[in-house]
Each structure stands twice: as C-alpha cells, then as structure tokens.
Design a protein that fits this description.
The protein has about 130 residues and is an all-alpha fold. It is built from four helices and no strands.
C-alpha cells in the first residue's frame, strides 16, 4: 500500500467521521426539541396548574466538560502516528499495517489513561490545599 493510498483512505475516513458527528448531533437536537414541544403541548391540553408545569419542565443543566478529552485525542493521534511510522520503517503491508496502526492507537489510549490519572491526582491534591 503506497503513501498516497493511505493518505486518501485517512482523508476519506476523517471526512466521514465529521459528517457522521454533525448529522448525529442535528438528529439528537431535533429529537430533544420534539420531546420538549410534546411535553408542553400535553401540559396545555391537560390544563395543569403552573406549579406542576414548572416541575415537569425543568431546564437542562449543562454537563461539566471533561478537561482531559483533548489529551486523550492527542495521545490517540500520536499513537496512530507512531504505529504508522513503525509499519512504514519495517515495511509492513496488508492487514498487518492496519493492525499496527490500531495497536499504536491502543498504546496512545493506554498512555493517556496514566497521564490523566496522574493529572487528576495532582488536581485533587491542589484542591485539598
């Protein structure tokens, strides 16, 4: 497999991942809006008192963002790159090439786990002081 073929496959996969993420986010948001609209319609039809309606319609509390998400993504990409270099220099081809890349990604996840654990421990100690 040549470098051009690998680059083309990676580019297509990257584009497809972005498209799938956007489409699934839009579908999720549409379903959430439809559910809220249906709840409000049922409240109006059943003529509930305002106190009960306030209990049923609660504002969505945003989730706290994971500060270590970019770390994990970066480590996965670095692991994939290391797997690619490993396969390239050892001239591994065919399915072994892809297994090497996936192994590198797994190694990146493994490394990110230990880095994240150390950072969380450091943050916990910092909060206690």
């Amino acid at each position: 497999m040549t470098g051009v073929e690998v680059g083309a496959i990676c580019a297509v996969m990257g584009i497809l991942c972005g498209i799938v993420a956007i489409v699934s986010g839009v579908i999720s948001e549409m379903k959430k809006n439809n559910n809220e609209r249906e709840i409000r319609r049922q409240i109006i039809e059943s003529k509930l008192d305002p106190e009960t309606a306030k209990v049923l319609i609660t504002p969505v509390v945003p989730k706290e963002k994971d500060p270590y998400g970019p770390l994990q993504g970066g480590c996965v990409l670095l692991g994939m790159f290391m797997g690619y270099l490993f396969a390239y220099f050892l001239e591994i081809g065919g399915i072994g090439f892809w297994i090497t890349i996936v192994g590198g990604m797994g190694f990146g996840l493994f490394v990110s786990f230990f880095i994240k654990r150390a950072l969380m421990k450091h943050d916990a100690e910092k909060k206690q002081k």
